[in-house]
Amino acid sequence: MALRSPQVRVLAITTVAGNVAVQQSTRNALCTAELCGADVPVFMGAEKPLHRPHQSADWFHGRDGLGDHGYPAPKRAPEKLHAADAIIATIESNPGLVLVTLGPLTNVALALQRNPGIAGKVGRCVIMGGAPCCEGNVTPAAEYNIWCDPEAARIVLRSGLPVELVGWHLCRGEAALKPADTKQVLSFGTPQARFAIECNSRAQEAYFEQTGEHGISLPDPVAMSIALDPTIATQQSEHYVEVETSSELTLGMTVVDRLNVAANDRNRAVWAPILDRGKKTKVYWTIDNERWKQALYSALK
Question: Which homologous superfamily does the CATH classification assign to the domain defined by 97-300?
């Protein structure tokens, strides 16, 4: 969506071990840029989370992360610079930019560890991740991107970055593409429209197996639509948000201080690292489903 938007310039794409291995996600990013006719540089990043083995989501997205349709190899290769260094360099050269994350936060955490000062030079940091005050999609408590590398997510949330959290819940229900929506997208007849539906074929099956809901849930495009146009969101509020990193039961849970009790005496010691930074996270609760879909359609026509 960003590559197809005339209103923005995509400075860089970075890849990380997430739904698939980082080598495969890099290939996918290059293929997608190629499909959009964009020559934006692609930088390969971390091969594993900060302190854990990588656990993919190929059961949901297919072995190649794009539904296993045998897409041809890209014509371009990734850049030589590591993604974390590319993040630092791009922010330093473009203060005030919008940073959008659609996978685990390992690269961003590495960049912050190397240069904490970049947090103050980002205009917005829109994160697709978390299950704020609702059920998770990889465990009962956690959403995949945060669960995959919870330590990285904790670093990002404690860094002072102006984080905007677009949780998994926003792509469900009426936000999912229904059969009529899918038919409309395919009627556009563009390569981008066909790809958008085809590459989510396995994800559509997995979504039904998991939730019993029919449709294609698209958390990453929902997040990007909000990054491009924040007015698509209809309800948001700012809260302290922390990530669980040690519990076997709730690992990766995004804990939202929705009732503003974190600073109470009984909670302050646990929440001190977040409170001391004084930076709250903007959490999006609802979106205008029709406007989000129209934004997607505009990108695919």
Answer: Ribonucleoside hydrolase-like (3.90.245.10)
